[in-house]
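To whoever is on call:

I kicked off a structure prediction for a single chain this morning and the downstream step that reads the tokens threw a length-mismatch warning. I double-checked the sequence; it's 450 residues and nothing unusual in it as far as I can see. Pasting both halves so you can look.
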Amino acid sequence: MNKVSQHGEWTSRWSFILAATGSAVGLGNIWKFPYITGENGGGAFVLVYLICICLIGIPIMMAEIVLGRQGRQSPINTMRDLAKKAGAHRYWSLVGWLGVIAGFLILSYYSVIAGWAMAYVVRVASGMFDGATGDGVKNIFVQFISDPEKLLAWHSLFMILTMLVVARGIKGLERAVKFLMPSLFVLLLLLVGYSMSQGAFGQGVSFMFNLDFSKLSGESVLTAMGHAFFTISLGMGAIMVYGAYLPSNVSIASTTLVIVIADTLVALLAGLVIFPIVFANGLEPASGPGLIFQTLPIAFGHMGFGAFFGTLFFVLLVFAAWSSSISLIEPAVSWLVENKKISRMRACIWAGLATWFVGVGTVLSFNYMSDVTLFGRTFFDLLDFLTANIMLPLGGICIAIFAGWIISKQSSEEELGLPRGGYYEAWRFLVKYISPAAVIIVFMNVVGIL
């Protein structure tokens, strides 16, 4: 098989690390992780999350990169050709389709939420939240999402920024992540320093790292397991297509560890930014999804230099979303280039327009169509549930099974190039048995079987 993708290769190991870390680091790290940690009691939840990252995240990410580098194509064509080579059923290509469609649907609503973050950069910088009360901040948020024209404008702007990067191919992706990821870490460290000055940093650290297992429920364990899986972009084709551009001489195992450590570090630093600010202002850490858009603006509105550091925080959120969004659409673009024989620019236009159009449904689900439900969910809620709770777990299970049971042991062992001493056997055991079983438990829970 051709060992070089027609789309090119990353120029270095660090380019791939930055790109894959950018894919993994997103709203899930900075928006979702802090609020689910707050809802599930803090330190014990964080410990379970870290264990799940090791047992589920790392083995499946290594498996997905192995498949991507062996196939050197879009996820759909990679799964088709690897199945044919292994003598397996051609229906394994559906795993590639599942990932590409999941990434496409996720970006359609991800872009809308990222648009909120862009809008809040302007709002916080203008001093809109200075001295605002809880009810005042809530009213600002409700009025904002009730205005479809404003939501559509921010959604459109974010999609344009995303497609401008993707249209430039590997070089565009590399240049973007080389700017976005270092900037993201610098912003995070600045905000951690600011959070330390607010007088409740010790309380925030204690909340995140003191182990109180009495606050941990069975549901909390399953939530930690699910988030460990979803936070590093598994099952949506992004890591597989980025793996297709990885040079053959780069170690998959060590690279995966760096990516997962960086991704986890961002999530923990985000918690160290948010919780001390929350505690210093007497706010509730378990305030749920509104923690970012309704709770933190209250704090920023009453702190010294709150407008400046609040602006930095939402710029950070935009950067995280942007670095993820370019990986979500790349699998679809690469498939269009490979199968429809069109230029990357045309592929980006078609894929971007289709994603934007589906995103309009999410925009309207917060206002004009807020009363329109299917299976008891709005359009946005349905897409979120379908992708995060059904499509990604299915994709993760199938990737683990295919890498552990379908492709030959010799093939995966050569691709991983792990040192002797049982490292390969440990990975193979995890990816064949432990990771699929854990993801199946998560899947059964979210569909209501457990």
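Update from on-call: the warning came from a stale cache, not from the record. Cleared it. Sanity check on the structure: Residues 306-340 form the longest helix (35 residues).
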